[in-house]
Structures are given as structure tokens and as C-alpha cells.
Amino acid sequence: MAELTEQQSHLKNLLEQRAGLIAEINELNSQAAAKRELVLRSLGAIEYLQQIGVELPAPAEEAAPVEGEAPAPEAAPVEGEALPEPTVQG
């Protein structure tokens, strides 16, 4: 077989890179679809529980810091608390 020129070698490498990237994109799309389905199921369960009257207890009042103790840092928002509605594509 004839030896590849520099440009042919470069083209071969780019084609292999493209194939790898396409496979990676397909895997990421699959993972995103699975996560989207999980979010939709979770939202359905949340809606059901809220409709039947299930509520979380009110957060307890924070106690004043003890003298010499640093005040507690501000609590970060609960993950998913302000979750926007998912958009279904495709």
C-alpha cells in the first residue's frame, strides 16, 4: 500500500476524531434524555404528593449564635427548589 501523504494523514486523523466526537455526543444525548425522564417523573411525584396534601414541616427558627461562636453561614438554596420547567425537545 502506498504511504499516506501528510494531508491524507491529517484527513484520516480528523475523520477518526469526528467519529469519536459523534459517539461522545450520542452518549451525552442519551444521558440527557435519561436525566430529563427522571426529572419529569420526579415532578410528577412532587405534584401528586402536593395534591394529596403532603407538606414539609416549616423550618425551625435559627437560634442566636453563642457568644464567641461565629454566626452560621447563610443557607444555600435547596437544589431543585426553583427548578424551571423542563423543555422536551425532539
Structure description:
This protein is mainly alpha-helical and 90 residues long. It has a domain at 1-53. It has 1 helix and no strands. It has one helix at residues 6-51. The protein is elongated, with a radius of gyration of 26 Å.
* Element order: H for helix, E for strand: H
Shape: elongated
Oligomeric state of this protein: single chain
Quantity of strands, as a count: 0
Explain briefly what this protein structure is.
The chain is mainly α.
Reconstruct the topology from this structure.
Layout (H helix, E strand, L loop, with lengths): L5 H46 L39
What distinguishing features does this structure have?
about 90 residues; mainly alpha; about 0% strand
